Amino acid sequence: MTGRTPSRQDSLLGQATVRSLLGGIPSARESGGDALAELAGLVRKEADELDGIAEQLQSLAEYAIDQLKVITEGRDQYRHRSTDGVLQLTGLRIDMLLARRGAAVQHLTALCAAYKQASPPAAVPAPGLAPSPAPARRAARR
User: Fold this and answer.
1) Which of 48, 68, 100, 137 is most exposed, with minimal Cβ within 10 Å?
2) 2: in domain
3) Which whole-number Å values give the CA distances from 84 to 5, 45, 61, 115, in the listed order?
4) DSSP state of 126
5) Which domain holds residue 28?
6) Residue 96 falls within a domain, yes or no?
7) What's this model's pTM, rounded to 2 decimal places?
């Protein structure tokens, strides 16, 4: 393992993507009509889906690292004429999750663009959620 177990917050790629594109998460009680409320719901749903995919990918990558570490440390059990195929299967699953993650990011980005276009000019993200700080402000805090 890498020595660090990431927290759930570290794997919230969907939430982070929405915050970077919209400045916050759209409210569940979005005003501005049925279409805007529907888009807000789709944005939240796709962000959650992306978060789930990112968590699965992270977990599977950590598993592959653990399996390889066992081999590099010489702790694996050598069995003549036998292979478990663990890394073959894991590699394929990681590739599939990477493809799903890429598609989910593209879909979420398109949903955020549609939401932004459908929103009134003064629309505010979800109440109680602070917008992401601007890059200049983050640099000033360091």
Assistant:
1) 137
2) no
3) 26, 37, 18, 47
4) S
5) 8-141
6) yes
7) 0.71
